[in-house]
Amino acid sequence: MTESISPRPPGPGTAGGEPISGAQYAIGAGPYRAVVTEAGAGLRELTHEGRPLVLSHGADEPVPAALGQLLIPWPNRVDRGRYAYGGRLHQLDLSEPKNDCAIHGLVRTSSWGAAEHGPDRVRLTHRLLGAPGYPYRLDLEADYSLDAREGLTVRLSVLNTGTRTAPYGHGAHPYLTVDEPIDDCTVTVTAGRWLPVDGRRIPTGPAEDVTGTPYDLRQGRGLGDQAIDIAFTGLRRDAAGRAWVRLSGGGRTAALWADESHPWLQVYTADHVPGDRRRRGLAAEPMTCPPNAFATGFDVIHLEPGVGWAASWGIMAG
């Protein structure tokens, strides 16, 4: 016998239910506005003077191409989903079947609860419990705040509440936009090295000098039709310790910064983003470790029980 379940009453302003990305947390300060979602604590919208700084998606739309999502407890890919840690072999679900990889962590669609929500700030939390392939327990926090001059600051923090040391890395996946095709834009990345990858986007060797390559974007260069989907390191930082990615065009600039806890920046020209978002934004992804870090061990953070860690990044209008 099948049990009948009554539908949940519609939420305020909806017709028949809540959006699939859950609660929508709006914040604002001066000319900046943002919306953060319950699903994954993702950045769904960010505007300056009413114009977008990131590619957005609908509240009731499945998130395409990881727009605005947080990538925890690893960013990018793990080759075949396999890695060894703590004397054990682990197998992650292959969340990117076409490349036979596990991609972008475990929390992108998880429900995060609001611990604090004010006019210019929202702080969300999530408890990541152990699962096949990642038998560790972490308490996570994502703190989004807006400032009228400095724009958006995002602080990600983690505490190992489990019984064993856990491998950890994180990233974020906003797509900068100036509401123009990026082919007509100038891109600046303050990075001195780039990481070669194979056709499955898995690193093939150590990072190389960008000098004399199409990936030398340190002085800013018109993008044209160049396709990029690689990780950069050797980051040059300003006096505040921030590395930058800037997208400029149409008289506007969208800029992402990452603090010193992020030695890597993935840049992706949105070539395979579906529909009219294709090459309308530039993914600028602060990362604590490179692709396939769980398999190689490179720049993996080793979180002992009871130990926490935090890092920050942000976006502002230029």
UniProtKB/TrEMBL annotation:
Taxonomic superkingdom: Bacteria
Matches recorded under Gene3D superfamilies: 2.70.98.10
GO-annotated biological processes: galactose catabolic process via UDP-galactose, Leloir pathway; glucose metabolic process
SUPFAM superfamilies the UniProt entry points to: Galactose mutarotase-like (SSF74650)
Residue ranges crossing the lipid bilayer per the database entry: none
Top EC class for this record: isomerase
Protein name: Aldose 1-epimerase
Native species: Actinomadura viridis
